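The following block was generated as part of the benchmark described in Methods. Ligand: phosphoenolpyruvate.
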Amino acid sequence: MIVVLKPNLTKKQEAAVLREIRKLGYRPHVMRGVARTVIGAIGDEQTHHTLETLTAWPQVESVMPVQKRFKLTSREAHQPNSQVKVGKNVVIGGDRFHVMAGPCSVESEKQIIDTAKAVKAAGATVLRGGAFKPRTSPYEFQGLGEKGLKLLAKARKETGLPIITELLSENHAEMVAEYADILQIGARNAQNFQLLIAAAKTGKPVLLKRGLSMKVEEWLLAGEYVLANENPNLMFCERGIRTFETYTRNTLDLSTIPIVKKESHCPIVIDPSQGCGRADLVMNLCKGAAAMGADALLIEVHPNPAEAWSDGAQQLTLDNFKQLMDELPPFVAASGRTMA
Ligand code: PEP
Ligand code: MN
């Protein structure tokens, strides 16, 4: 920690601060400038948090941490890229680029099976579909619940694709984990820490969306809850943040790809569908994300978006998706990967 002292302190006032720093388990190193005295407090900030209490002292101008607050998710803690195994054959975070695709919501057996078959034929390796939906209004379609999970399991059986679906409540953790290969924690729950712990404890891979107005540091700290609860299989998913812009539903922050890669060893997945809310932009965002080094994409695809029960405007048709998959390889190659 760096402790900046206020100017014109007496020796006695300064000595009291030094005593307190020692008392809290740090070794003070005093640096005297022309106008200010700064103290470098040497010690492990992960175990001695209490130095921040010095901010309340009248002698102290400010206290600044030097170490990062996230630990297990950080690149420092684990140099190589983490690889997350999903189902039997999918590894996210390696040299293969994966595409997870499927409808926003599971609506019927025919809808999910037709979509699963089509996205698999086009090259997707994970099937998405919401069974429990976090809707802004309680009057909108809330998802089919466990029936939706059963339909996803059926689609997996028919196609062999592992499935990702959202976990909305701690109460459902065991049930959803029984069916899902990846538990999605949605943007609205990204800082629901009890839910993150419950998800971690199932042992299933967890995909953590970025919250609507979440800073990267907060997101990495939320991920920390998963790793700290003995589940190493964490993926971050950027899905756009709330800004003043209204051309798009959210502002997809692709800068998080190099940031998360630099700060963390966990894979980063991009969801351009929630990210922009417009099917006509999804293809370009996917290409950009692939070229920038994302590990995977999470894309909404529906056999008939015009009649979708949720998020119709942003879902690709089966034909659009096929075209995207055909055009994606050079962009994936640009970041040194190959399509799975
Ligand atoms: C979704 O994937 O359909 C969804 C609701 O995502 P988010 O939590 O990112 O809004
Ligand atoms: Mn959606």
